[in-house]
Amino acid sequence: MESKIPNHIAIIMDGNGRWAEKRGLPRTLGHKEGANALRKIITYAGKIGVKYLTVYAFSTENWKRSKDEVDALMFLFKTYLKNEEKSIMKNNVRFLVSGRKDDVSPSLLEAIKKLEDKSKNNTGLTLNIAFNYGGRAEIVDAVNSILKSGIDNLAEEDFSKYLYNNIPDPELLVRTSGELRISNFLLWQIAYSEIYITDALWPDFDEKELDKAIESYNGRDRRFGGVKNA
């Protein structure tokens, strides 16, 4: 039986620091290897027919890390945007970022907007990077937008329109490094997502690991609260 490819896959990319520490390397090198892993997964996901890929790159809580590590992550993301622009355009990828703009440098915000604008008409995979993102923050920001609009009665199906990027909910949520937490990621959107946990650290997550996640997804019975017909 042919494998069914999820329309939208979300990934908590965890384990970069531990990957580096296990090898006696600086944590920043783990983040660089994580960026390389992401490049491979973006290419492969588009190739097999995934339409949306949301990855958790930097949370609102990550500001609590050491200044050196935060500065390195900001520099890495800006470098990533510059280095990957050609590949994103070549592979027809639409690039989006979900998250708050607070505390993000103007130069990085400018680089994000530039790539979003340049790729907005691409029709292949939509890459949605959750950067300076928190699920609770997103819901609070959506509620504040609704209040400002003057709406006092909103249907559940319309709430998503007020989230950072109005894209379909993920069918599959993948978390690397074996941690059994959601970590404040897509709290509204993953209400009915299938969850797949792997012990692989993110820099080691490759095409075969994604295939395993999709294979597990195909073995699930998705009833959305209903009962499967006999």
From TrEMBL:
Keywords on record: Magnesium, Metal-binding, Transferase
Sequence similarity: Belongs to the UPP synthase family.
Report the function annotation for this chain.
Catalyzes the condensation of isopentenyl diphosphate (IPP) with allylic pyrophosphates generating different type of terpenoids.
EC number(s) stated in the UniProt entry for this protein: 2.5.1.-
Q: What start and end residues bound the annotated signal peptide?
A: none
Taxonomic path: Bacteria, Fusobacteriati, Fusobacteriota, Fusobacteriia, Fusobacteriales
Q: Which organism is it from?
A: Fusobacterium ulcerans 12-1B
The UniProt record gives the binding positions of substrate as 15-19, 27, 31, 59-61, 63, 65, 175, 181-183
Q: What class of enzyme is it?
A: transferase
Protein name (Swiss-Prot/TrEMBL): Isoprenyl transferase
Catalytic residues of the enzyme:
14, 62 (proton acceptor)
| Ligand binding (Mg(2+)) | 14, 194
Source domain of life is: Bacteria
Oligomeric state and interaction partners are given as: Homodimer.
Q: What GO annotations for molecular function exist for this entry?
A: ditrans,polycis-polyprenyl diphosphate synthase [(2E,6E)-farnesyl diphosphate specific] activity; magnesium ion binding
Q: Which cofactor does it need?
A: Mg(2+)
**GO terms (BP aspect):** polyprenol biosynthetic process
Cofactor mode of binding and number, as noted? Binds 2 magnesium ions per subunit.
